[in-house]
């Protein structure tokens, strides 16, 4: 029988562990030295300096024995590999999109799509753009516009589908921008908004609005299975449907998708663009050959395509998804039980700490999200990421608008209940001394995507 997280345990793992990787907690002084060397940016830490790595759920999944076996049947032919044939058939079967163009990861898929679909002066609406998606829209001279429902910005609002698009604002934008919107995007789940799902009803309405205006709808389907699982468990009338079936209902409303299979493809590398548009598919393949490689491998080893095909199937398993979302809820329940503020309800792939309520004494210019990332590492060797003013700003600017979160992303099939308890205890210890934590300043930052490489210093230093 499955335990649920209500009795203070996550559901029992629907797998057993066959391979292990040693991890080690450095001593406090070593951690201090590591922070200084890294310029207080967790992206600059070495993985060996990290104990529990919650930096990202992207490309960090544990592959199954079936996937590892799949690597061994890699047919590394340049053209027409049998792994490509299987990959192509799997993705077409899963999504119903007829044209699939493999790419080495999600941002490569975005690069191909936006290079061909968006032009200077155009506008691309989305529930919320992920950082790489935003940059790709901007790179071609178009403007990314986030149109989430207002509840998305309120961490305490229990709305079950905070990833929904505000359809009234979308209708206004489409009516007011004739010829200027090349595509509408929806990010499932909404990563930058807390891993929050969008409902089937909302995707249906967005699809109707886009199509009434003659505009295609594309999905960022990185976390399509988690999104479908939330539809199954939260949307009335969906409980009897399988995740695969729900996924298909969602895909049927769209004209194509970009995918980072490093999430709900359960692989360490891989992605694709999918479309119903034959002409676009032909052009995507031309671009692909220039940037990624021949269309039957798309910048990947063919064995990676095999692992991706298997992973996409495994990600739709309801028992796996029950455990995965249960792990996130378990961590959320521990933290909220101690009064620690998080984005509620918890999303699909991690916990997002609500930094404004965690550090009310640190205003935006003192970079409270970065301060929390540093403290979690300092306290327990736990690596996390800021999703706030630093991630969404450029150069040295710091805005106090929008969400200010720290994400604890849970890698898939990697950590156990005791790891999660350790993480919760680490957060609690920082929470208990929160009033004494100081701010940070930017020492150096590139113009774009600065969170990856910027260097920081404690504000007093
Ligand atoms: C919602 C979303 N879209 C796109 C991407 C980009 O994917 P990748 O990291 O594979 O380039 C990510 C990655 O984290 C993501 O979360």
Task: Give a structural overview.
The protein has helices at residues 28-37, 65-72, 82-95, 106-117, 131-139, 167-176, 200-212, 224-234, 243-251, 278-291, 302-314, 318-337, 355-358, 368-380, 417-432, and strands at residues 52-53, 99-103, 123-126, 143-146, 184-187, 217-220, 256-260, 271-275, 350-354, 382-383, 385-387, 405-409, 440-444, 455-458. Helix 7 (200-212) links the parallel strand 5 (184-187) and strand 6 (217-220). It is globular. The relative contact order is 0.16. The chain is of the alpha/beta class. It starts with 27 loop residues before the first helix and ends with a strand. The strands form five sheets. The chain has a five-stranded mixed β-sheet with strand order 2-8-7-6-5, sandwiched between helices. A three-stranded antiparallel β-sheet has the order 9-12-11. A two-stranded parallel ribbon has the order 1-10. The protein contains 15 helices and 14 strands. The site of pyridoxal-5'-phosphate has 14 residues, from helix 4 and helix 5.
In short:
With 461 residues, this protein is an alpha/beta fold. It has helices at residues 28-37, 65-72, 82-95, 106-117, 131-139, 167-176, 200-212, 224-234, 243-251, 278-291, 302-314, 318-337, 355-358, 368-380, 417-432, and strands spanning 52-53, 99-103, 123-126, 143-146, 184-187, 217-220, 256-260, 271-275, 350-354, 382-383, 385-387, 405-409, 440-444, 455-458.
Oligomer: single chain
Q: Quick one: how many beta strands? A: 14
Low-confidence stretches: none
Strand content: 5-15%
How far apart are the termini?
55 Å
Q: Can you list the ligands bound to this structure?
A: pyridoxal-5'-phosphate
Characterize the main sheet. Answer: 5 strands, mixed
Number of helices: 15
Computed over alpha carbons, the radius of gyration is 21 Å
Helix fraction bin: 25-40%
Shape: globular
Q: Helices and strands: which structural class?
A: alpha/beta
Estimate the mean pLDDT confidence.
95
Name the helix and strand elements from N-terminus to C-terminus, one letter apiece.
HEHHEHEHEHEHEHHEEHHHEHHEEEHEE
Spatial sequence of strands, sheet with the most strands:
2-8-7-6-5
């Amino acid at each position: 029988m499955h335990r649920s997280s209500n009795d203070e345990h996550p559901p029992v793992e629907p797998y057993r562990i066959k391979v292990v990787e040693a991890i080690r907690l450095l001593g406090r002084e070593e951690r201090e030295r590591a922070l200084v060397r890294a310029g207080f940016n967790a992206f600059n830490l070495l993985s060996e300096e990290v104990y529990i790595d919650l930096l990202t759920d992207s490309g960090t999944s544990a592959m199954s024995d079936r996937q590892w076996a799949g690597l061994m049947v890699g047919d590394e032919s340049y053209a027409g590999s049998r792994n490509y044939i299987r990959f192509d058939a799997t993705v077409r079967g899963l999504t119903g999109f007829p044209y699939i163009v493999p790419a080495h990861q999600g941002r490569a898929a975005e690069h191909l799509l936006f290079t061909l679909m968006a032009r200077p002066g155009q506008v691309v609406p989305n529930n919320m753009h992920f950082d790489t998606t935003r940059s790709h829209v901007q790179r071609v001279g178009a403007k990314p516009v986030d149109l989430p429902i207002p509840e998305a910005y309120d961490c305490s609002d229990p709305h079950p589908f905070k990833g929904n698009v505000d359809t009234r604002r979308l209708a206004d934008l489409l009516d007011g921008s004739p010829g200027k919107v090349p595509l509408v995007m929806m990010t499932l789940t909404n990563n930058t908004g807390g891993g929050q799902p969008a409902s089937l009803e909302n995707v249906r309405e967005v699809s109707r609005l886009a199509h009434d205006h003659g505009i295609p709808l594309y999905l960022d389907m990185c976390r399509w299975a988690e999104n479908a699982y939330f539809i199954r468990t939260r949307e009335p009338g969906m409980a009897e449907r399988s995740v695969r079936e729900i996924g298909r209902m969602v895909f049927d409303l769209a004209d194509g998708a970009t995918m980072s299979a490093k999430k709900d493809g359960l692989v360490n590398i891989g992605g694709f663009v999918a479309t119903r548009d034959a002409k676009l598919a032909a052009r995507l393949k031309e671009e692909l050959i220039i940037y990624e490689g021949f269309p039957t491998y798309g910048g990947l080893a063919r064995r990676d395509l095999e692992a991706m095909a298997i992973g996409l199937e495994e990600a739709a398993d309801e028992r796996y998804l029950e455990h995965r979302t249960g792990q996130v809820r378990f961590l959320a329940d521990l933290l909220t039980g101690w009064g620690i503020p998080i984005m509620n309800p918890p999303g699909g792939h991690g916990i997002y700490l609500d930094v404004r309520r965690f550090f009310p004494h640190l205003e935006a210019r003192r970079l409270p999200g970065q301060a929390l990332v540093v403290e979690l590492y300092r306290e327990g060797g736990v690596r996390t990421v800021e999703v706030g003013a630093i991630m969404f700003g450029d150069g040295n600017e710091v805005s106090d608008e929008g969400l200010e979160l720290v994400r604890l992303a849970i890698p898939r099939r990697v950590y156990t209940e005791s790891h999660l308890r350790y993480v919760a205890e680490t957060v609690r210890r920082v929470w208990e001394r929160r009033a004494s934590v100081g701010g940070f300043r930017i020492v150096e930052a590139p113009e774009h995507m600065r969170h990856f490489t910027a260097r920081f210093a404690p504000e007093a230093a």
